[in-house]
């Protein structure tokens, strides 16, 4: 059997917590901040947790060793 490789794109974008939840950085803060309201910018700070089913798919297909 060949080894299962982790998708390197997913490795950079997601982090699995100790309890098995998948964290991701929120989209919409790379450029174009002038268009966005201060409230939008404030609410996009930090990381968020994926829904359980989406997180399970990420771990199954892209992060097999997580």
Automatic annotation (TrEMBL):
Gene Ontology CC annotation, any one: cytosolic large ribosomal subunit
Entry's Gene Ontology molecular function annotations: structural constituent of ribosome
Any Gene Ontology biological process: translation
Protein name: Large ribosomal subunit protein bL35
Entry keywords, A to Z: Ribonucleoprotein, Ribosomal protein
Family: Belongs to the bacterial ribosomal protein bL35 family.
Entries under HAMAP family matching the protein: Ribosomal_bL35 (MF_00514)
The keyword Cell membrane is annotated on this UniProt entry: no
InterPro entries referenced in this protein's UniProt entry, alphabetically: Ribosomal_bL35, Ribosomal_bL35-like, Ribosomal_bL35_CS, Ribosomal_bL35_sf
Alphabetized Pfam families for the sequence: Ribosomal_L35p
